[in-house]
Batch of 2 targets.
Target 1
Amino acid sequence: MDKDAKLLEVKGVSKRFGGLQALRDVSFSMDEGELIGLIGPNASGKTTLLNIINGYYPPSSGTIYLDRHRIDSLNPNQVAKQGVTRMFQATRIFPRMSVLENMLTIAYAVRRIPSRDIVQKARKILARLSLDDMIHEDAGNLSGGQRKILEFGTCFMANPKLVLLDEPFAAIHPELKGILEEFMIAHYEEGGTLLLVSHDIPSVVASCPRLIVLNVGTIIADGPTEEVVKKDEVAEAYLGGIV
Amino acid sequence: MNTSIGLRSYWKKCRQVIEEKRALDLIFSLMSLLVIAILPIFLTSAYWHGVLVVAMFYALAAIGWNLLGGYTGQFSIAPGAFCLIGMYSSALLVHYWDWNPYLGIFMSVVSTATIGLLLGWICLRLRGPYLALTTIAFAEIIRGVIRFSYDITRGDLGLSVPKLYGSGVGHLDYYYTFLLVVIIVQIFLYFLIKSKIGLYLQSIRDDEVAASGRGVNVVWWKTFAFALSSLICGLAGGLYVHFIGLASPEMGLLMNSGLIIGMAVIGGMGTLAGPLVGGLILHPLSEYVREFGVQHMVVFSFLIIVVVRFWRAGLYGSLKNILERLIFHG
């Protein structure tokens, strides 16, 4: 494999919804084993960018490569099969299916791990996320925070190449947030690749070595976190002086 | 002491089996069908045997619809139309070309699966009222074509077809034929729903967007559900036409689709046993009240309102919830 090949390459991606320019010539790349924080004010285009990477929206222009395979014209299920998993900002689980079934569905559908290992892997992840005693419970009976954790857990079920996390820490108890952070960091340390979108700036700064800042659909900063947060326009406009 | 330990370990094993969510569904379904199997020992009236055959026909159609509406979340209002297609597929082949009725029933299955696949493809991007209206329109087109193709179908007069077991035979042969088919379909669906295909279908029902993001090929599995659901309704129609000996466009009336869907809803949508319970209870009940001069549709409609208001999960669905609470939470 080409040593310089990136895991994810987003090249000149723009997205227009009627008269609204949501993304403008966005380009960046990710190496395997990177954890990148993607921040920006509301309506800056963060979720739109994830939706395009994930295959929910086709870009108006530009291309996206995953492991040198072009994915910008694929459907979400095809992108998932390529190894991209996604946690949504508004929790999306299958409420009438059990916790275990929620975990199994993605693993069977993307076919990235042998079938015989799937149930064991699901149990292991659920145990690490403290959901193992609710394995047969309908997901609809879980609390809001537990649902979020379940959706988070599904992202790691099928040896993902890239995990897209959209606001995983929003509106959950600090204890549950700690579980998610710990899991996310462990996955990163094991060589996993993650793109984290969050308004929880202290968490993003603490956990992500690299930061990308979006504003009005344009990348205004991209680099090591400690350098990006020192930029005046970023610190003042988006971080509110927290760092 | 030993007996008590033995019972406890037996109960633990039972719980482990039932813990697999749908095992309770299959156990209840098979127990209900066992009751139906031994019922003729006590119920000797040929009339009631006939009523139960028709009940099993409706139950089979409701089971077919439930796969699409209950498990996949696609609210089609055309189960009656697929029963109608199943009836006429076999009826025309047997009537005009002297096909063997068994081969005719096989063709009912093939034709309804094919047309279901086509309808599924047309309805791919439709949801809610748009999907419901499209399926109503489809059902009316099918019924209209059959009614007005008088030269071929004899329109409202209906097309007479030979019975499966010949004339002058009691209803018991049909009774056990329908029973066997329902048992096979229920066992097949049990394994289908607990397989990964079942997971895909249910994930589409719960959240199509999330399902697609988690690798489920929504287009393919929705079309599959349409085809398989139509196939089961077609099988029910094909069997039914060779029981009553007459194919009539009346089966395609919206009222019949409403009856089939109502049975699934009253029994418990999205459960294996629900539509079976709905069909087996409601049709005999409506026949029973007919004896007292009561319009069976009035009773049926009243029941729908009561169940939807007080037991959203349906009769079996509510019972299942109670049983699960008793078994798993003491």
Target 2
Amino acid sequence: MTSAVEPRFYTQTWDLSYRHALGDTTSRFLAGLAEQRILGRRCPSCERVIVPARSFCDRDHTATSDWVEVATAGVVEMFTIVHEAFRGLPDPPYALAYATLDGADTALVGYVRGLDLTDLPSAVASLAVGNRVRVAFSDTPTGTAADYWFEPA
Amino acid sequence: MSAVGVLGVGQTPYVTRRADVTFPELVREGALLALDDAGITMDDVDAVVFPLAPDALIGVGNGERWCVEALGAAGKPFMRVNNGGATGMSAVIAAWTHVASGMFDVVLVAGGERVSESGSAQSVLNKMWDVGYERPIPLNTITMLALSAVRYMHAHGADEADFARVTVKNRRHAALNPLAHLREPVTVEDVLASRVLAWPIKLGDACPSSTGAAGAVLVSERYARAHGLRPAWIRGIGQNTETFWMGDRVGPRMLADHGDADALAVAFERAYAMAGVTDPAGQLDVAEIYAPFSSVELHVIEAAGLCGKGEAPARLAQGDFALGAKGTIVNPSGGVLCSNPIAVTGVARLAEATLQVQGRAGDRQVEGARTAVASAIGGDHQFYASLVLSADLEDIA
Amino acid sequence: MTRSEPAPPRVAVVSCVRDVVAREEGRSLEEMIFETSHRALAAAGLTAADVGGVVLSGNDQTDGRVISCMTSAGPAGGVGRDVTMIASSGEHALVYSWLRLRSGQGETVLVVGWGKPSESVSPEHAELVSAEPYVLRAVGMNDTIAAALQASRWAAPGAPPAADDVVAWPLTAADLPARADCVYAAVLAVESAVPAGASTGPAWIRGAGWSTDRYEPGARDPAAQAALHAALAHLDRGDDPVPAASWEAVEIAAPSEPAVAHAASALGLPAGTPVNASGSLRDAPAPAHVAGLARLLAAATTVSEGRAGVAAGIGFNGFAGQGATVMVFGRDAVSGGDAVSGRDTVAGRDAA
């Protein structure tokens, strides 16, 4: 017989690091952000303008064929306002939305800034599905998708 | 092809934390419960399918390999399925495939989950997203479904109280289920007053992070007949996959709306066609459907053909889908909203559906249930699995 | 009441495509998967819209993607279709594809396996997290160390280091698998859906066996390669097994060259049967997760290109070969044609 022990815990961290190859298409989209441009790719089969730019269309399993610059304004398709803190993610509150920019057939995800998020009902009202937003760009681009966000139009 | 039966199912209670066992020991508990229920031992098992979703949630890469000794499965054919949240049911369908291939008579599905050991589950789950475009945006499994809920509200005129009524129903059911994780009954007011996670999803709309294990034993028809057994029968299976890109599920050119579950409806249709289900609402007694947030259950009920698009809130408000109501009872176990052991959540749906059609579901039993549908969802509302179960092999229609 | 049980359909690998790059920095993993899947479908005369299902396999720690099937299902042609990710090892995805068709789920399957270790800053570190956290991780277990522990069981007692490029005694760099960025894609079809007039013939799947042994290297004898023997036993239970004595070529993925040699010697192959004609572990690089799939498909290619009438692929997976898979391919769908095709391929084998 062994005497009872308290269950023990062993703390481990996965500190795996990666350097992900983004490919030519995503690289060009990200470079466009520094020029305050939003770029899409057209699918030759379904003719959708896919934003953000992707090198293939998963609907038709077809390589996209040409670049299309879309507008920097569009319509909110869906949104959420985050109030919960998740470890490793930004401090709340923050708002996220998908917006279909004019000239695009798919929606782009981004932060929504320029809203008072502390007042949830008014923030929700100003972000209603169908409302217009415009894309704002960072003055100090990092070459990532963090270089743009949406603001109420 | 020969029919495939469910000879036994097992589930541990679903709880926040288990400090008394390791992960393999936890998996073993679920496997032994399933084997005992089937009246067989591991020696009788021809092959094992192991459901395990993100490795990072248990903190061991290819954690399935770590469990071979605990399962007593050394030397047996063994493989792992990972379809995100659909993993458990996709693993059941993989086990069905093993049996239906004619190669195996007895296949065990066994797995477990202990999300509580991951200190940062939603940070892990942010790494699901595309490396170039989405990871800088703090998407996770809560925000992705908050986005869906907003579209459902917009399209169908639903409100937060409609979502809250799903939680109220499921908690009432879970109170009757000794295995469920969240069993405290709540009111609509309680849910509406709970703290906002990602609007419109509040704590009361959200599933818990559950620790637990589940297993199931699938057998061939020839094995069941040779041994005089009476399993529940899997009558139809159906899977489907949607585009990963949530931004492609909105706008004028979308094929399926992120606010609805149109691609899941296709998976249900595939399972119904195979099973001969022609009128789901009239022919299915029970639905054990995967809905980790209250809003999701509404559009899954609709995708399953239990009511028309946008009608689920009104039907729920008038008391339908709840234990005691007429028609199909939805999530009599309390569902995923009350217990979400991610890797085996889909196995739990099969287990609950099996108990129901066999009249073994205790206080949560749907009276006279003979048929059931079960479903699961994985990825970013992207991988869909469904199956139809019945007590016998008579025509369902 | 007895329900009829028709015989399961015969299944063949009808196209097989690979994309192997030492370090692919110009394309994303998803772009590699799209291109390779598209080529495999085209080689089978199909588009994604035609295919009956998609089976995927990747290792999330290698690729740095959590639930990597999310971003890869679309490029693999999975939208609108049944997609299942078999995450235990690439060769299990091929086995599962075969089971899918045998079970009557559609007429074709696209199977795609991948690994892009160049994106991982330290692939060894990604392997380390496959060590259980309590003991093996503390000693820094990874595939190389596990392979060396296994090979130490075969090393002569007191043998001196073989060379100055020892990585982990007794293994040298030449004994160990090399990594590369790889995507493998293949189309499987039932007999009625095998395309006519393809440039290469179908490689009929004559049987498969797979098994997984205990996890703890200390709880098994890694030198015994028990998983392989169990897999061979399962293969023998198939409905049309082909004994190893009839195999004309074998492709083996294993943790080390000594492990390849021991596996090959245990098979009882006829003298002179080529083993790993597609290249050594170092010359045919693949990350561990897809190495087995690569060898199984290499065996299929050996048959479809007419270099053998019957060929087998073997893949090990896990630390020190915890799991093993065997799949046998034939130019003929059933036994009976074997003697003829065996004679036919003697010349081909000599030429190879």
